[in-house]
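Exam revision sheet. Question 4 asks you to relate a sequence to its structure. Input first:
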Amino acid sequence: MFGIKGFRCDGNDAIAVLKAGRRAIKNIRRGEGPFILECRTYRWKGHVGPDCDAEKGCRPKHEIDLWTKRCPIKKLEGYLSRKKIITKEKMGQLRGELESEINDAVAFAKNSPFPDEGELYKDVYYREAVCPGQS
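Answer key, structure tokens:
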């Protein structure tokens, strides 16, 4: 499209994304111009709230189930385990550490006061943008 090279990859496969990204960077560094990389994946949850859209009839449950079986984290764990890059025990330890960090962040957010209304639009837009070539 528009003379720009590109390709698609499985966005639920971290290794495929890594390889595709390396290929794109290689093309760019060779001076072959911009590169479009489409990593195809699926949004499990609704745009608003914690539901999966199946409850609202927006998407069929079998579609959501199909994609959740292709969990990118589980795929990567399987790859790392098969290649003996990391043990299941170490993965379990890392998972525990991450869950603890997430729980701490959620607790911090819940215990923090809401910001003042005046903060609503603060730092949303950069006020002094300078385009390349401008002074």
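Marking note for examiners. Helices lie at 14-29, 61-68, 72-82, 88-111.
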